[in-house]
Each structure stands twice: as C-alpha cells, then as structure tokens.
Amino acid sequence: MIYITSKQKKQSLVFLLLALISWASHASANPADLETGRDIFYKHCKACHGDKGDGKTFASNVLNPPPKNFTAKKSKKELTEERMIQSVTKGRKGTAMMPWESRLTTEEIRAVVHYIRKKLMEVEQ
Fold first, then answer.
1. Cα dihedral sign for 102, 106, 108, 110?
2. What is the value of pTM for the model shown?
C-alpha cells in the first residue's frame, strides 16, 4: 500500500494549481483571440504605435515621450505580459497612454496584449 504524506499532498496540489494556471493562460491564446486583439489594435492602438508596433507614426513626432516601440529588443525584455495589461488597463503616468479599463473589457485587454506580444513583439507565451 502507498501512503501519501500531508507534505506530498500539498506539493501535488500546488503542482496541479500551477499546471491549471499555465493551461488557462495558453487556452485563451486561440486564433479567435488573436483576431480580436488585432481588430482592437488596429482600431485603438495603431494611430500611436503604428501598423507594425514600432511607434513610427506622426504621433511619435509630437508626443513626449514617444509611443512605445514594441519591436525594440529593450521592449521585449522589459515589457512583461502583466505590465502590458496594467498599462493598457490603467494607462501610464507621464505619457499619452490613457487608461482603457472603461472602454475595453478585461478579455479585450488581454486579447490586444496577446496580439501585440505574439505578432508584433514575437514573444513566445
């Protein structure tokens, strides 16, 4: 007979919880979410961040600081998914990035961040 200690049960539950969280984050990364994210980006974000996410737009000439260049190596290193979600949700003080929490749902914010990371930043989730 196999006996499982209380510590082993806790470790198993933690592992299961982490696996479920990981699965849930990847489960939302389906093509429909990418399409939704792309549509939101082109409707609300491209005027400042550009079609390619490189920030090369008229806005970059008049905004200080200029819009974030998502294609830059520095951006790929410093912009975590969590930070991007927070930036879209609450905006960025000292920049022209306004909060979108009253205009987009949580799911829409996650979709646009996923689109930016996957298609423009080319970051593997």
1. positive
2. 0.75
pLDDT at site 57: 96
Which domains does the chain show, CATH number per domain?
29-120 (1.10.760.10)
Q: Which residues contact 46 (CB under 8 A, 6 or more apart)?
A: 57
pLDDT digits (tens, 9 = 90+) for 2-42: 676 766 555 554 444 444 444 444 444 578 899 999 999 99
Three-class HEC string of the chain? CCCCCHHHHHHHHHHHHHHHHHHHHHHCCCHHHHHHHHHHHHHHHHHHHCCCCCCCCHHHHHCCCCCCCCCCHHHHHHCCHHHHHHHHHHCCCCCCCCCCCCCCCHHHHHHHHHHHHHHHCCCCC
